[in-house]
Write a structure and sequence with these properties.
By secondary structure, the protein is mostly helical. It contains 13 helices and no strands. The longest helix has 35 residues.
Length: 279
């Protein structure tokens, strides 16, 4: 009886902690959404109250801005391109580190993983100088390689751990059937690693879609290359006073695709991270 009581108390304690953090991190999102249905005057008058007269005027005004569609398209292009390239490079590199030993393998692996400890800010000046010398500044493509480079360490870390869990006997059996290393990778390893690969893709999609600092540094001189976060900031600050209603509606429209994508794929994220932790 006592053990059962302790067990139930521990369960309720865990649920209580989970509920607290859900409310703590979820409230700003909820506040942003209901504030987007207020007028600017109502929002400034009482920013915490629910909308008394819900309106879609802010959404209409944001969607009527032609540049907003270009910002959406730019973010879509750079997110798809960077995540696709990153996933291909990360899966291949992680497989090599997990299965194909070579001289200096561990040194190279730790060099990659050290990238997780390097603050983004300390790389801005070197990257800016390199991109300027290459003639890529203020072009959308200037964001491609930084997004891939900064996403590689964590992606390799997750994928390598998952690849090491796959039984070597499966690869040996495929090799006996005449499969090459490339064929084993594409036909055996990748299908079995789907949870980890999807986890890597989702995490990097979220990162690329929401990224602001690199875009501000590398493409701020060309509004045709603005990504969505940078474009939203330019929209709501384009007049002398900050337009709170436009800001909330634009931010809601920006967050909507990634939230839908995350909720659809969240099970794959959990599977991939749990598999990596158990590995």
């Amino acid at each position: 009886m006592k053990k059962s009581l302790i067990f139930h108390l521990s369960i309720w304690w865990q649920y209580g902690i989970a509920l607290f953090f859900s409310l703590f991190f979820g409230f700003p999102l909820f506040w942003m959404v209901f504030s987007s249905f207020k007028s600017s005057r109502e929002l400034v008058g009482n920013m915490w109250a629910l909308p008394k007269h819900p309106t879609l005027d802010a959404y209409r005004s944001v969607l009527a801005i032609p540049e907003f569609k270009f910002y959406y398209l730019n973010s879509l292009i750079i997110t798809i391109a960077s995540v696709t390239l990153l996933t291909i490079v990360a899966t291949m590199a992680a497989y090599v580190f997990a299965r194909i030993p070579f001289p200096g393998c561990n040194v190279l692996l730790f060099t990659f993983l050290a990238g997780m400890m390097i603050p983004l800010h300390v790389t801005l000046i070197p990257l800016y100088t390199m991109l300027r010398q290459m003639g890529l500044l203020n072009k959308l493509i200037s964001l491609l390689f930084p997004y891939v480079g900064f996403g590689l360490p964590m992606s390799i870390y997750i994928l390598r751990g998952f690849f090491e869990k796959i039984p070597v006997e499966l690869e040996e059996a495929a090799r006996l059937d005449g499969a090459s290393t490339a064929r084993i990778f594409w036909s055996v390893i990748l299908p079995l690693s789907r949870p980890a690969v999807i986890t890597v893709m989702i995490l990097n999609v979220i990162g690329a879609w929401n990224e602001y600092l690199l875009a501000l540094t590398f493409v701020s001189g060309n509004n045709q290359a603005y990504t969505l976060p940078l474009g939203v900031y330019s929209i709501v600050t384009s007049v002398t006073t900050f337009q709170y209603d436009k800001a909330m509606s634009a931010l809601t429209l920006t967050a909507l695709p990634i939230l839908v994508f995350f909720f659809i794929m969240q099970r794959q994220i959990v599977k991939g991270l749990v598999a990596r932790a158990l590995g």
